[in-house]
């Protein structure tokens, strides 16, 4: 009976040692930053897309520049037109930036445990790359499982 209790205790201590480096504030900060930046810049992303698909066909409206495009969309569809298609972008940016900051700070915390000196520049870069790989992997397998055969 004590063997099972010790096994459960060692299992919980293994999880606690892994999650000791995790701070959920970083996840919230990343999600918030991704959502807010996307909401602020989505009209410009929409203009970029409109220019990309406006390839000279007569069916699509012609725009003379960025401001002309924005004012045309505003006059035709109002604020709703400027934020057309914002929902998937907000979900994507919020979750991907949230995961990135979550992993980045957990990795940095893990690497600095027990050290008195700061990380070197290459260690910061490697931590950022690792966080990018982890967040990209989770994001793509979660949201695009058919592409990866999952």
How would you explain this protein's 3D organization?
With 150 residues, the protein is mainly alpha-helical. The two termini are 40 Å apart. It has helices at residues 2-19, 24-53, 66-82, 86-112, 121-143.
Q: What is this structure's SSE topology?
A:
Layout: H1 2-19, H2 24-53, H3 66-82, H4 86-112, H5 121-143
Helix pairs in contact: 2-3, 2-4, 4-5
Any descriptors?
single chain; 150 residues; mainly alpha; 5 helices; elongated
What is the number of E strands? 0
State the secondary-structure class. Answer: mainly alpha
Cα distance, first to last residue? 40 Å
Strand content: under 5%
Q: Percentage of helical residues? A: over 70%
Shape: elongated
Number of helices in the DSSP assignment: 5
Q: How many strands, which pairing sense, and closed or not: the largest β-sheet?
A: none
Mean pLDDT: 83
- Report the oligomer: single chain
- Helix and strand succession? HHHHH
Q: What low-confidence regions span 5 or more consecutive residues with pLDDT below 50?
A: none
Over the alpha carbons, how many angstroms does the gyration radius reach? 23 Å
In short:
The chain has 150 residues and is an all-alpha fold. The chain has helices spanning 2-19, 24-53, 66-82, 86-112, 121-143.
